[in-house]
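Materials and Methods. Structural model of Iron(III) transport system permease protein. The 566-residue sequence of Iron(III) transport system permease protein from Devosia enhydra was retrieved and submitted for structure prediction as follows.
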Amino acid sequence: MSAVAGGNAPVRRRGPDLLPWVAGAITLIVLVGFLAYPILTTMANSFAPQGESFNWFNGTLANFERFWTSALYRSALWNTIVISVAVTVLSTLVAVPAAYFVARVDIPFKPLILSLSIIPLIAPPFIGAYSWVILLGRNGIVTHYVNQWLGLPMPPVYGYFGVIVAMVLSNFTYVFLFVQGALSASDPHLEESARVMGASRWRILRTVVLPLAIPPMLAGAMIVLIEALGEFGVPAVLGGEMYVLSTLMYFQINGFFNLNGAAAIALVNVAITLVAILFLLRINKRRRFVTLGSTTRRAALIRTPGMRIAANLYVWGLLFLAILPQLVIVFTSFSERWPGTLWPLQYGWSNYTYVFNRVVGPIQNSLILGAIATVACVVFGTLTGYVAERKSFAGKWALDLTIMLPFILPGIVTGVALLVTFNAGPIVLTGTAVIIVIGYFVRRMAYIYRSVVAAVAQVDPRMEEASTVAGATWGETMRKVTIPLIAPGILAGAIIVFTTLISEMSTTVMLYSARWKTISIAIYERLETQEISAAAAIGTITIVVTLVLVFSATKIIGKSMSDLFR
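The predicted structure was written out as tokens:
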């Protein structure tokens, strides 16, 4: 009787699922404290006179009127639009053929090509921009030999030409990786069916392959556009006397500490970004295709000699141009005497001795700030990513809003918003490490979130249910079952976050202080004082450290970083 009673004992009732509430509370804090409040404060203060906080009695449009009354503001606005559109279009035009060649043509060393294509994304763009001065400047190496051998004049590297070339070669990889991943994973039956029906290779390319590439192409183009609108380092180095909105914001803050004027410029920048994103989304909405089928077989590779030669020449030529600035950085870092001659007169290790003796602080700061921000992104992204994929609850839209907002805001705009918000009032964070960590966290939290969502989607929920039925708490299940299974996805996202934060510039340039200078600021300061070789040594160390982190982590997770774009 007792055995029967024991067998019929009531099952312990589980308490309410508090996880969505916890995730919701954390998301609300992030959304309100780090996004909504800074954005609204920035919007409000853009309508206030210089040096004042907005109230209902001092509202003015003076900060916006400068876009009509000031030639500097008008030219900065026009330059921003022209450069961003040109960089986006040209990046797409050069990336799509390379992506097609890598995905569909039988060329050697594809893993190496995909690995090298990551370098332009993780290298400091502004030191790379100065490499083009060394190459294409009035007394540049390439300029000299082109004039000597061909007698052709080179366009000036300062201004539109230099800025667009540098930004295209450092950003086209986004489009390349997205399109290459999509074409590699697409269903080959679509093309085979067209071929059986008698379509030529050109017709298949035009009517099947390219339409399938449009959604990932637009996704990559959107990232390029946002990066171009918020880029500070390249225009600061190669712009010459030309201003764009990002350098104009920096000029207003660094020159006059005009937070109100910078807030107005930031809002205009955001408006341009929103219009451009909505335009790209509208185009993408009209083209929805299923590119993945039930087959795991990839499309047959093209092996004709002519196509293989063309593919190798194009892909390796483009890749060489993309990593050429980084090669010039490494070369310059060993120059000890370069007194305006075509080539250095003396080489050595003195620049690295200088760096390790005098620039240790910024290197440590970058590693510390990047590590703290990465940990914060991992905690927030793992929790919210898991909840978004596994739970159903009201207010789920807030998660997507929190994740998407940083993509709409260029980095320099995020820096301005945080500076305007936390420069006065109940919470003052300017000049501290906290405000830099917040800026980094806001800009990069989506990377972990997306990685975790993708990883959790691949884990069978029944594994977690079995653990719960066996008596494990949710915490034990997460620690012993879920986290080990999704660890590669978390690690992959953390790698991207940390490596991109080491040389982050657009947000940092608005938030750093003398105590919390980072690697990017150390490089920029030495470029301004013409300590080119020292700046190159810092840049080389940054590139090497980043590459070591990336390739070491890829060994751990067992796949290439380029696979994350598939």
